[in-house]
Design brief:
By secondary structure, this protein is mainly alpha-helical. The chain contains eight helices and four strands, in the order H-E-H-H-H-E-H-E-H-H-E-H. The strands form two sheets. It has a two-stranded parallel sheet with strand order 1-2. The protein has a two-stranded parallel ribbon with strand order 3-4.
Length: 186
Amino acid sequence: MGPPGAGKGTQARFIAEHFKIPAISTGDIFRANVSEGTELGIEAKRYMDAGEYVPDEVTNLMVRNRIDDADAVSGFLLDGYPRTLAQVEELDGMIKFTGHRLDAVVCLTVDQDEIVSRLLQRAQVEGRADDTEDVIRRRQQVYLEQTAPLIEVYKARGIVHEIDGLGEVDEVTQRIFTALDVVPES
């Protein structure tokens, strides 16, 4: 977890690779649907372009279908989900149904101005039309209003690991592995 631009996607790849589990990114699923022009993609793009979250019913269905895939039987990493309290409840039901359990929540913390700078730079490099400064700042606000409260829910369950997301990518990865008591393979 963490605000948009904190490095969740980058770190998710390293963690998933280390544990040999799929990284399930709602953002990647949304972007794939947008580029393919699917009905879901068209609907998702409307919200994404405005810096808003895609509605829970669409997101929940995508995640439910994905964690039921064969490659997720041994576990999975969620990137960008849950984002609302309603999604926490939905996820609890999903993992109870599939027999999984939530082991840890890694929360990357990064200064807001640093995030805006990162996302504007990424927008230039990757040509992301949805990463304008106004949309980025709106996403930060939406995160604070809707997603930040989830961290408290997971803190109450004793599974949150807050990690400083500033620094070199490998330094942040090492902090995560240390927090999870994992010695990365050399």
